[in-house]
Predict the 3D structure of the following.
Amino acid sequence: MITLLLIIIYITFIGLGIPDSAIGSAWPALYPDLGIAVGSSGFVTAIISIFTSLASFLSARLINRFGTGTVAAVSTFLTAGALIGFAFADSLIWLCVCAVPTGFGAGAIDAALNNYVAVRFKSHHMSFLHCAYGVGVALSPFIFSFALENGDWRLGYRIIFYIQLFICFVTLLALPLWKRAATLQPDKESFTPVTLSYPKMIKFPAIRAGWLAFFSTCALEFTCDHWCTTYLVSSGGATESAAAMFLTVYYIGMTLGRFLSGVLATRLSNKKIICIGYSTVFIGIAALFFPLPVEVKGIAIAMIGLGNGPTFPNLVFLTPVHFGREVSQSLISSQMLAANIGILIMPPLFGALAQALSLNVFPYFAAALFISMTVSTAVYFRRAKKMGGCLLSLAAENQTEKAAEKQE
C-alpha cells in the first residue's frame, strides 16, 4: 500500500513538470499564430511564477487543514484545466488567464508533496521524486516536437492535457490511500502539524539563510534554463539547433544528478551530496570564463545542471530533520516561496543586464548566484543545528494559544 502511494506521488510529480516546459516548447509557433509579440511570453511566465509563489505562501494552511492528498488532487485538476485552456487560447489575455491556475496548482503540489515525502520517507525517495519532475519537464518538448512537425502547437497542448487528466484521475482514485497510509505508518503520523506565521519565521537567522539558499539554487537553475541557449548562440557561436540540444543535455544532467543523489543517499549524508554537487557546479561555472570551444561550454552548462540538481531535494529533506516534523510544512512552504521568487526575479534581471551590457556577463551572473548558494547554505547548516528545539517550543506555544482561543 505504501509503495503504491509512493508511485502515485511520483506520477503526480511528473504531472508537476509537464506544464513547466510547455509554454517554452510551444512559443515559437504559438506567438505568430496568435499574432502577438515574441516578448509576450514574459507576461505569461511572470503570472505563472507569481501565482506559484502565492500558492506556496498559502499552502501550509491549506495542507494542514485539508490534507496532502486532497490538495494534490485539486491542484492537478487546476493544471489540467489550464492546459486545455491553452489549447483553445486565441489571445494574449486568454494565455494570461490560463497562467493563473497553472501557477497556483504547481505551487500547491510542490509544497504538499515535498513535505510529505521529507517527513515520511527516506532521503533517496526525495531525490527520485525530483527525478520524476525531470521526466515531466523533458516530456513536453518531446511531445511538442511531434506536434510542431505536424504544424499544430495546439495538438501538443491537447496531448499533454490528456496526460494530465489521466494523472488527475489517478490522484482522485488514490484519495483513500492517504488515510490508509496513515494507519499503516502510525510512527510517521504521530505528530500534530503546526502552522507558523512568516513574522515568526523571519526572526530566525537559520530560516532566513535557508530561504536565500533556495532562492539562489532555483535562480541559477532557471537562469541557465532561460538564457544558456541565447548565451551559447550569441557569445559561443553555437547554432540555434545545437544550443537547443545543449539545453536538453542540461536537463538530462540535472535529472541524472538527482538520480545519482538518490543512489548515493544510502552511503553518503545529504550534506556530503550537496557539497559534491557544489564542487561540480564550481567546475562548470569556472569553465565558462575561459575561451573554450562552444561544445565544451555546452558541457560546462550541463555540469552546472548535474551539480545543482541534487541541491533542492536534499535541502528539502533536511528541513524536518533540522527543525522537526511539526513545523516542516510551514517551513517547506516558505522555502518554495523563496525558490519561486528567485525564479520570478533573477532570469529577467539577467536579461536586463545582458541588454544593458552584454550576454558575456552570463558567467559572472552565474558565479554570483553560486557564491550566494554556498555562503547561505553554509550559514544554514551551522545555524540549523541549534534551531530544532526553539521551533518546537514555538510550535507548542502556538498550540497553547489556539487552545486558549477555542476555550474563549
